[in-house]
Write a structure and sequence with these properties.
About 50% of the residues lie in helices and about 15% in strands. The chain is built from 14 helices and twelve strands. It has a five-stranded antiparallel beta sheet with strand order 2-1-5-4-3, sandwiched between helices. α6 packs parallel to α10 and α8 runs parallel beside α9.
Length: about 425
């Protein structure tokens, strides 16, 4: 995302010289800053009010780049996710925390602030003490809350290229972490075996090193688990964050928004899928509520183990257009994650939007049915239809709900251009599916 270079303007040239122009310019710079520069802009904005050696933002909204840093290179190059997560766990609420914490491998004085709705963390290292600290705290808190909200907005509005790059970064981080875990686990386990050997007679040294090495193994494996958690989000938690995002609209618009909960045991979503899904639903809901005579919007998520299934429906006149600019923009986000978006408009009854977002890279089915572009789960459902199974049997066999089966059957009818199960089975037979 591009940005306009920030050019400070002398206060003497301003039409209202009594206004706090440096602060207002800092707010404008934060609003315009791309995600890659937002930590630098926040540091520039906070330094006049709160000196610090380094500024670090830890946010799970950016799964591929959870840390955003500016300041002392010795600190920002060494601070770790584990340290930041441990510090965040000690914070009870949004209130400022001053104290000492392990950061960049050593204990340092720090100011920490947590943003309640996104769980993002701001850390300033080596803040001032005494009156100077308390005087600037209110402005730093204000600027941080503004920044945390802008990060969420920018991630939600990010172009497809950002989503693809972030997803690739997440996958690479997982791969490297897994390799490091295997390497160091093997090394440490070998050390443990050697130190436990009866040929070593220094019992005290052996016991001490054995204990330290065992703790190192636990810490390394915990780090691997934590890294995995950072790039995934439980489907129920992701849906609850969507509900929180739409709560103001529910409260003030006068339009009822109904939320159909996903199954609690659904597969965790990759971070980019969770963020994109919330942005897509928010966009659909806002588009639908802008239509005349809409009083109710219903949104439902489900997960079949391979895809996140989204359904958003309104009770309007059925005036939503598939080629509307807002829908085209949302469709590009869906396509960036190799998903599909389909709209069924029912004149006088409203619009029904179905979105499928794969949780993994899709593989096209082989054989004569490859031209239908079926997802793996859709092909499984079609095979069960061909075998004569009903929805309840299919749901039980695949471990999904009957509503999810119906969702896939509707998509099958659309892709196969048929109107009934009989037609779908006959067409499948003609293409060699038995």
């Amino acid at each position: 995302m591009g940005t306009v270079a920030h050019q400070p303007v002398k206060e003497s040239t301003m039409p209202f010289p009594d206004l706090p122009w440096p602060l207002l310019q800092s707010v404008a710079a934060l609003a315009d800053a791309p995600l890659a520069q937002i930590a630098e802009r926040l540091r520039e904005a906070t330094l006049p009010y709160m000196a610090s050696s380094a500024l670090v933002i830890f946010t799970e909204d950016c799964t591929g780049r959870p840390q955003k840093k500016a300041g002392d290179e010795d600190i920002i190059s060494r601070v770790s996710i584990t340290e930041l997560d441990a510090l965040r766990a000690t914070l009870k609420d949004e209130g400022p925390w001053f104290g000492e914490a392990e950061l960049a491998g050593q204990i340092r004085p720090a100011l920490a602030l947590k943003h309640a709705s996104s769980n993002a963390l701001l850390v300033l290292t080596d803040p001032p003490a005494g009156p100077e600290r308390s005087e600037g705290l209110e402005l730093v808190t204000y600027l941080w809350r503004l920044t945390a909200r802008r990060i969420r907005e920018k991630v939600a509005d990010a172009p497809p290229s950002y989503l693809l790059e972030s997803r690739a970064a997440s996958a690479e981080r997982l791969r490297v972490t897994a390799e490091l875990t295997d390497l160091h686990s093997t090394t440490l386990e070998t050390l443990l075996a050697a130190l436990r050997s009866s040929s070593l007679d220094d019992a005290a040294a052996r016991a001490t090193v054995t204990d330290l090495t065992a703790k190192a193994l636990i810490g390394l494996r915990t780090l691997s688990d934590r890294t995995t958690d950072l790039v995934k989000e439980p489907v129920a938690k992701a849906f609850e964050r969507l509900r929180e995002d739409l709560r103001p609209l529910t409260r003030y618009s006068g339009i009822e928004i109904e939320f159909i909960e996903p199954p609690l045991n659904g597969r965790a979503l990759p971070g980019e899928v969770a963020h994109a899904a919330r942005a897509i639903v928010r966009g659909l809901v806002l588009t639908m509520t802008e239509q005349p005579d809409v009083s109710r919007v219903r949104t439902q998520w489900d997960c079949d183990g391979e895809n996140l299934l989204i359904n958003v429906r309104d009770d309007g006149r059925g005036a939503l257009k598939a080629d509307a600019p807002s829908i085209a923009r949302l469709d590009r986000r869906v396509q960036a994650l190799t998903g599909t978006l389909r709209i069924d408009v029912m004149p006088g009854w409203g619009a029904d939007v179905f979105v499928t977002l794969p949780l993994d890279l899709q593989t096209k089915p082989a054989g004569d049915v490859a031209g239908w572009d079926l997802a793996a789960r859709e092909l499984e459902v079609l095979e069960h239809l061909v075998a004569g199974h009903r929805n309840r049997t299919i749901a039980s066999t695949l471990g999904i709900s009957e509503n999810t089966v119906k969702f896939h059957v509707r998509n099958l009818f659309k892709k196969l251009d048929v109107g009934s199960r009989t037609e779908a089975i006959a067409l499948a037979h003609s293409h060699g599916l038995r």
